[in-house]
Amino acid sequence: MSKFIQEFKDFAVKGNAVDMAVGVIIGGAFGKIVSSIVDDIIMPPIGWLIGGVKFTDLKFTLPSVDMGLEKTAPATINYGNFIQTTLDFLIIAFCVFLLVKGINKLAKKKAEEPAAPTPAPEPTAEEKLLSEIRDLLKNK
């Protein structure tokens, strides 16, 4: 049991797991911010422009069914909420696209930086001796 706990501790303390957890938490908060931007800033003017419509209230009501003793409430298809959620998704996807594009650009810039040229290694004593023998044979 202690080996299992130690393995879990090693996993949880690793940088990748912690980084991923931070990313998930920040992503959730970012999603709430984008939802607020869409719900509170973008959609009200669009609704106003098309006649004072609140998108979350847009729905198609299906006819109610009489089940004998009780009359059921009519079912609704809430397409306005779907439109708003789709817009949330598109804005979040666009922001993530821009973020990834920026990170890739920085990574590419870093990869393009020329590495310092390494100096040629000094020839070994054996190589120097072979070069001298080669030169002597050329001169004969």
Notes on the protein architecture:
This protein is mainly α and 140 residues long. 69% of the residues lie in helices and 3% in strands. The protein contains four helices and two strands; from the N terminus they run ααββαα. It has helices at residues 2-13, 15-49, 79-112, 125-139, and strands at residues 60-61, 76-77. The chain has a two-stranded antiparallel sheet with strand order 1-2. α2 crosses α3. It starts with a helix and ends with a helix. The model has no long low-confidence stretch (mean pLDDT 80).
Label the structural class. Answer: mainly alpha
Arithmetic mean of pLDDT: 80
How many runs of DSSP E, i.e. beta strands? 2
Shape, per Cα inertia axes: elongated
What is the chain-wise order of helices and strands?
A: HHEEHH
Helical fraction equals 55-70%
> How much strand content do the residues show?
under 5%
Kindly report how far apart the N and C termini lie: 80 Å
Which strand order spans the largest sheet, edge to edge or round the barrel? 1-2
Q: Give the biggest sheet.
A: 2 strands, antiparallel
Which ranges are low-confidence, i.e. pLDDT below 50, for 5 or more consecutive residues? none
Features:
140 residues; 2 strands
